[in-house]
Fold:
Amino acid sequence: MKRELGDGIELDDDKARIDRAEVHRFLSEESYWATGRARETQDRLIDEASRVVGLYDGSHQIGFCRAFTDGLALAYLADVYVLSDYRGRGLGEALVREMVDRGPYAEVKWLLHTTDMHPLYRKLGFEEPSQKVMERRSTRNASESG
Structure:
């Protein structure tokens, strides 16, 4: 899938197109959830993802997200970001909508963790956190999960 959003911005789910160095730089240096994540870990998360979607301005990677799923009932959305210079233009919503609503897993239940983007995810049908969810944290370094 490749989809033009206008003004030279496009979405693409081709894993080979992902600028792994840029994704790793952003996640390990700028995100609150993956600070310090090892490059090898990030590469493996991309390799083993069920689907990735990149957001591009020409050839420049400006956003990213990945998902993993059992393919039948459940998918998990992770590592969603848009570079700060591109925020406020609806690109994050387009990125997540492509992953959740337009991809091969549109019919499954989606889960995610976030501390700050509840308004965005509500627009896409995610509900408020509830008492139903239990979490067992990784015994690995916290920055290795996510």
In short: The chain has a mean pLDDT of 91. Residues 82 and 88 are 10 Å apart (CA to CA).
